[in-house]
Amino acid sequence: MNTSNDLLAQESHFEFGKNWASYAKLITESQIGIAVVELQRLLGGRLDGKRFLDIGCGSGLHSLAALRLGASEVVAVDIDPDSVETTREVLRAHVSEGSWRTLKMSVFDLDPKALGEFDVVYSWGVLHHTGDMRRALALAGSMVRSGGQFAFALYRRTLFCWFWKAEKRWYADASPRAQKAARAVYLALFRLACPLKLRSYKRYVAKYRTQRGMDFFHDVHDWMGGWPYESTFPRQVDRLMLAGGFRPQRSFVRAGSVVGVFGSGCDEYLYSKSVSAR
Asked: Which of 4, 114, 154, 222 has the largest CB neighbor count within 10 A?
């Protein structure tokens, strides 16, 4: 429930943590394996001996994936206490070795003097929900050591962002019954639109878990409720990162403009911090 007008405060945000706690009950070894493959795809290799910071850890699935890829230490932070607790439970259940800790912390409170710098900083689909995406991006980047990597995903700006911004603000305050009705409308329209894209709804939902090991129905709730909400274009991201002392390594972005009738989706980015950057 939105109880604050301050977009930087956790009380003003959609209850992401409760959604992730529900999703975490569905995590299987298969989904963990997919998460490992997808994280390695974005980073371009393993994490042996590296410190890994997971900003907005959610369910803890990708903190777990980082440990499976050999990270020497994982620090998982989230502003939502439900996400912090869920991540702790997931790691306790699935990690047999490796150093990790979970912290309730906003991205705006991150300080390299307190936590140290990291070889890899990771924040997938989080920074656009902080209430100040640009400052969050800069502060997250400050946690990357010289020569380290910063991997993140941000919503693409679309023609329908104006609609989704209004919808998300409403949904975050709506009752569970109203949210359920809104999801039913979304899913019905999505199902009707699938044939127009020569897509089978059932096959799409069945294959959805191959996308980072996630669950379609939990992601619909996450998308519809994702308040605060910002979006951006790849060229804007690139300008910000270059100005901050980073250079691009790889990205997975869609070409051209995106309409966004059913959502914007995330573009993925990997940057390395210049050795001279501070």
From this structure: 154
Task: Assign 4 a pLDDT band (cuts: 50, 70, 90).
Answer: low
What's the CA dihedral at 121, 126, 127, 128 to 10 degrees? 150
Question: pLDDT averaged over the chain?
Answer: 94
Q: Enumerate domains of the chain plus CATH numbers.
A: 10-158+227-273 (3.40.50.150)
In sequence order, what are the residues at sequence separation of 6 or more whose Cβ sits closer than 8 angstroms to the Cβ of residue 52?
A: 63, 66, 71, 73, 74, 75, 118, 119, 120, 121, 122
Residue count (the chain): 278
pLDDT tier at 68, thresholds 50, 70, 90 = very high
Entry pTM: 0.94
What are the residues whose beta carbons fall under 8 Å from the beta carbon of 121, sequence distance 6 or more?
A: 52, 53, 55, 140, 141, 143, 144, 148, 149, 150, 151, 152
